[in-house]
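ARCHIVE CARD
CATEGORY: sequence design from structure
SOURCE FIELD: tokenized fold
FIELD CONTENT:
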């Protein structure tokens, strides 16, 4: 069982990276990873050595994330300080690279959840299509289709600017 715990521990940096990309909120991402780790440890008896621990952990994280989204839809969202007008200090000299990164991050957040999940697993976490499809419980063809749509939409959003961000469905 200690080998399982060691493998779970090795997954933490990738889980944090994926959670941050999904939530776009470092605190919420850390909570998501912690909840996922707690669930994995509590349910470690359900893990079967026939698959990879990494895939199992990503599946747990994704399930916890989706459950949280369902719960949030039923309750009002708290106001973020970042949404208050005038939150950015005037006159900051922002580098073009940071602007492009921020634009890409906004565009990724505007993608439909199904496309964002696929894009993050394949492009950011560099998972093979089969592993990502197994985590998401979808056929590889569906994964490839969602990935193509996500890349196309992301390309359109980042090439034409932010006004289109609101029109993504």
């Amino acid at each position: 069982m200690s080998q399982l715990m060691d493998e779970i521990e090795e997954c933490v940096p990738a889980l944090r990276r994926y959670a941050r990309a999904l939530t776009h909120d470092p605190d919420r991402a850390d909570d998501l990873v912690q909840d996922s780790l707690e669930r994995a440890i509590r349910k470690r008896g359900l893990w079967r050595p026939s698959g990879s621990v990494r895939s199992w952990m990503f599946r747990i994280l994704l399930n916890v994330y989706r459950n949280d989204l369902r719960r949030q839809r039923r309750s009002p969202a708290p106001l973020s300080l970042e949404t208050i007008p005038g939150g950015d200090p005037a006159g900051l000299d922002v580098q073009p690279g940071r602007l492009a990164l921020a634009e890409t991050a906004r565009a990724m957040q505007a993608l439909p959840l199904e496309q964002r999940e696929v894009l993050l697993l394949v492009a950011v976490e560099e998972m093979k299509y089969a592993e990502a499809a197994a985590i998401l419980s979808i056929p590889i063809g569906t994964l490839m289709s969602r990935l193509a749509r996500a890349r196309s939409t992301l390309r359109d959003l980042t090439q034409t600017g932010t006004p289109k961000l609101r029109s993504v469905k």
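CARD ANNOTATION: Residues 2-23 form the longest helix (22 residues). Residues 2-73 form a domain with the Rna Polymerase Sigma Factor; Chain: A fold (CATH 1.10.1740.10).
SHELF: design records, drawer C
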